[in-house]
Amino acid sequence: MAIQHFPLKLVSRRMLAPSVGHYAFVRDDGQPLDFIPGQFIQVHFQYADGTATKRSYSLATIHDHAIGPGEAVDIAVSYVPGGAATALFEGLEVGGTVDASGPFGRFCLMPADANRRYLLIGTGTGVTPYRSMLPQLAQAIAERGIQVVLLFGARTPEELLYGDEFRAFAAQHPDHFRFVPCFSRELPAPGSAHDHGDVRHGYVQQFLGEFAPDAAGDIAYLCGNPNMVDACFESLKECGLEVKQIRREKYVSSK
Ligand SMILES: Cc1cc2nc3c(=O)[nH]c(=O)nc-3n(C[C@H](O)[C@H](O)[C@H](O)COP(=O)(O)OP(=O)(O)OC[C@H]3O[C@@H](n4cnc5c(N)ncnc54)[C@H](O)[C@@H]3O)c2cc1C
What we know:
Layout: E1 4-17, E2 20-27, E3 40-46, E4 52-58, E5 73-78, H1 84-90, E6 97-104, E7 117-123, H2 128-132, H3 134-144, E8 147-154, H4 163-172, E9 177-183, E10 200-201, H5 204-207, E11 218-224, H6 226-238, E12 246-250
Parallel strand pairs: 7-8, 7-11, 8-9, 9-10, 11-12
Antiparallel strand pairs: 1-2, 1-6, 2-5, 3-4, 3-6
Bound molecules: flavin-adenine dinucleotide.
Residues 40, 55-58, 75-78, 80, 82-86, 125, 128, 249, 251-255 line the site of flavin-adenine dinucleotide (FAD).
């Protein structure tokens, strides 16, 4: 898939959590954006001294092929105190544009996968590739009857990005898709929206063993905080998964 350089115009934005924004752009050059769910784009800008820099953002768009002209190119941006791209995104108004390139990356579901189960593990905005993969997962459920476990690490219930959407998908596929939020700081209040039983209190890596990772049938995806990715990678290898069965995307700063 050819890498392209294109302008993105902001169409709308909303807060997903106190410090995470959902940004919906359209390509301002009227062209489609070919991508495979799980891939990311880069946003190019300059520091105050004029030095060029860029940051990477996973595509959150729920799609299973090219995003057509005028269709939304979605990303979720976590605001980092003092962050250069954070300042760019916080100051961006609807109608404003950013320079972007992409798509990049291989953190994707593979057509040749013959596994019985996907273990999808993410923290914070690291869950966005899985949002994008939902149509492909629905297809794999329909065609291959696969199981999917989504272990999503957030500090608090209000940081459960796209939680309603994942829960709705789980309700549509009750025998195949399990959504397990892990809250490191605070559990949902009894009776609140996220208080639906299948939640954990702690870090995602603490609960991997509960799902009995299985070298014979599993492929695991790890996305987000680099420490989480490393910890889960080691745990999964100890469970017998081969490196090729563990696909990783670390959200490191690309300054
Ligand atoms: C493949 C890939 C995909 C990515 N996808 C996303 C995505 O979908 N959404 C998203 O929000 N980010 C994503 N990131 C991270 C993103 O590219 C930026 O690194 C991040 O947004 C910080 O950029 P910034 O310019 O605001 O902060 P910077 O100016 O780069 O950093 C400012 C300060 O904050 C620290 N810092 C940087 N990142 C973090 C962090 N996450 N937590 C705490 N401190 C931090 C830095 O060390 C530095 O001290 C991705 C990274 C990669 C490599």
